[in-house]
Amino acid sequence: xxxxxxxxxxxxxxxxxxxxxxxxxxxxxxxxxxxxxxxxxxxxxxxxxxxxxxxxxxxxxxxxxxxxxxxxxxxxxxxxxxxxxxxxxxxxxxxxxxxxxxxxxxxxxxxxxxxxx
Length: 117
Hints:
By secondary structure, the protein is of the alpha/beta class. Helices cover about 45% and strands about 20% of the residues.
């Protein structure tokens, strides 16, 4: 599986990249949403792991941009968040076409389960 990891926490992206490679997945990292959109314009991914709370261009901005371009359904997005979000906000994100939401700290087994589905 080819996965794009989008998170402003470089320690986390490096850790996820190493873990996913050990699980025999290809992994590309972007540490901000704008860079991730540029990468996505050049390459297709099987899944995108997306942090919601990033400075300047958040995961929500990323989702809105894909929705505006009509490309949200083409991407299997799993949101990762340490932010406190309401059930309504979570439902809104999922209703936009996001395939899953995991709260940080994430359990790697849960992540692999979502990626497999």
